[in-house]
Amino acid sequence: MISDSTFALQDKETLPDKVSKATDVADRRGRFLRDLRLSIIDRCNLRCQYCLPKELFGEDFHFRRIDELLSYEQLARIVDGFVSFGVEKVRLTGGEPLLRPGLDGFIAQLRAAHPTIDLALTTNGLRLEAMASALHEAGLDRVNISLDALDAAVAERMAGRAFSPQRVLLAAEAAREAGLGVKLNAVIKRGVNESEILPLARASFERGFSLRYIEYMDVGTTNGWRREDVMSGAEIREQLRELGELEPLPAKVFGEVARRYRYVGTDVEVGFIESVSAPFCGSCTRARVSAEGELFTCLFASKGVDLKPLLASEEDIGPMLRNLWLHRDDQYSETRTAHPHGAGSSNAPEEMWRLGG
């Protein structure tokens, strides 16, 4: 097994350079914008511990009505504006994006306007099996599917509602059969689903799915985050020794979030998103827009910039978005690491279900 120190050395040697284009603009730390996370709905049909804990978001909790969210036309204008100065990848998020009516039509609209962008979607998979073919035909490239456990009892504890892991695996198979790229995402919380690390790895390996382990993060104020509940990527990799040797893979692009490995002798990948134990603020190339129209330049931001006044005008919003990115200087995770008992942000961070993961 190659150690983390070996990976760190290789990572420094092989990290792709930032490639500048004529349309690029760098923020205050020299980071170009490449990725847009676009939330299209705040509503979700699960109550996951790390996002929408059921103790606080019960059956009577009121999400925004569809007519209170940005319209597809407004969302498309935002994509147009961001693509005009560097965005290459758009990921549709929520909430649960498959809950919003007319999604395939919106995807087709984005694909027609921007034929070369990487268009992806994050979902819990509960509606995916029936929708996969239509989404691919509309122009979607890839899906990331959340799956935090294979044991039904553990999965339901994490999801906060009745949940069938096998149903999600069938949806993943259906998505791949439809032509979509598929990754599985698992948030690991110590004392809750750490027993599922190996079962998830085995199931992904056997089916040939790429799996991403995500460290439990302090996004928002309602998930009861404690540092001691975090299973680090290094701890998870240690458990994966049981399945075989891993070899690190070089980053494909600057700003790649996951540390990627491959099981030696195979093409099956496993990745680790280590925002807590190994922050990557210095290479973050992502912006997020909530379904209500707020721009967040960091996942841990305490407040966003309301884009609705810009959208009320018929002017090109690209230059205004460009100016907002120009003044970005977020580095929350690095600050948290440097001052673990202090403040990474002076205000309470926004909730993940509002701004998208």
TrEMBL record:
Pathway: Cofactor biosynthesis; molybdopterin biosynthesis. Binds 2 [4Fe-4S] clusters. Binds 1 [4Fe-4S] cluster coordinated with 3 cysteines and an exchangeable S-adenosyl-L-methionine and 1 [4Fe-4S] cluster coordinated with 3 cysteines and the GTP-derived substrate. It is an enzyme of class 4 (lyase). Residues 28-267 form the Radical SAM core domain. GO terms for molecular function: 4 iron, 4 sulfur cluster binding; cyclic pyranopterin monophosphate synthase activity; GTP 3',8'-cyclase activity; GTP binding; metal ion binding; S-adenosyl-L-methionine binding. It catalyses: GTP + AH2 + S-adenosyl-L-methionine = (8S)-3',8-cyclo-7,8-dihydroguanosine 5'-triphosphate + 5'-deoxyadenosine + L-methionine + A + H(+). [4Fe-4S] cluster 1 binds at residues 44, 48, 51. This is GTP 3',8-cyclase. The lineage of its organism: Bacteria, Pseudomonadati, Verrucomicrobiota, Opitutia, Puniceicoccales.
